[in-house]
């Protein structure tokens, strides 16, 4: 059928949306926008919360589940610093306090230390720790309150005195479990920062697993140190690098080199040369041995003894020009440095052995010989610590110093 000139061509009709449909689309679009905004805000808020948690909230190490040894990765760390107190020294100055001389534990002495160690907490045959006497308990409480009350950041530690050896504890799984749990509980209950394990007379290879178990139990939250003898003198064989996988530092018993021959005088802790077959029995030789065993010399500390060795009936010089080395007919005795002063020995002329860097007194009338640390011998050891980049020193024992803190004041010049 034909169309007229004025007749319009009809355009196709588009579907029309109802008002309800338009409203629904707007609501959906708004909902999607809200979801996107909320998601972005939630993500940002969660990042902020977890960042604050990681930096402020410390983990609850007491409830840490111990993983099996073969699947646990060990990382030796020091206890996190949670104090704003200033450090007494950048190097370690570790003072061991004798439990039987609690009266000598003073804030003036503790404040000069970086670590204060109470020696010693008793350990039973099965590895369980516990204070057995009122005297020890009172001494420990005084030590703890004094050490925690000083104005410097002092790490408070304990040393253990056992009825049995660590080797015996390490050989029995049950005793090992009792020991590590007992140590952890003791440190937690008394708010103690760490423990020292004295291995001066131990079979070291058998103790490595015990040390490893203790590190896992403490989980890096407390300090562990190990006290080891000087290998040239003791004949001991051990791998210090294995010990330092789990211990934070090692205290070396770099003294007593001539204790096996009590009929001959000699320095307590000579820095250098002895004589004849004893030429390598000194602090320098000991630390060279240890430095071959470890990669980080800062984890090693030498000892500064605060006591005096006295020989009676010391007579002929063993080697010409070495007045320090004499034959003696009686065994030596050991007295605190303070006792030496009380008895008037410091009023005598003090002699100096240049080769060993050691001080001594010889009374030719009474044939009495004394050897001890003083400001000069300590200054040489402090220089040695700096040159060898060692971690610092430890003191045996703090209570042996005099009332003026003569030796301690010399030691603090390390800082």
From TrEMBL:
Gene Ontology MF: a single term: chitin binding
GO biological process, alphabetically ordered: carbohydrate metabolic process; chitin catabolic process
Superkingdom of this protein's organism: Eukaryota
Segments passing through the bilayer: 27-53
UniProt KW keywords: Glycosidase, Hydrolase, Membrane, Transmembrane, Transmembrane helix
UniProt-listed Pfam families: Glyco_hydro_18 (PF00704)
Coiled-coil annotated spans: none
Classification via InterPro entries: Chitinase_II/V-like_cat, Chitinase_insertion_sf, GH, Glyco_hydro18_cat, Glyco_hydro_18_chit_AS
UniProt KW Thylakoid keyword: no
Start and end residues of each GH18 domain: 91-415
Keyword Electron transport applies: no
Family of this protein: Belongs to the glycosyl hydrolase 18 family.
Protein name, UniProt field: GH18 domain-containing protein
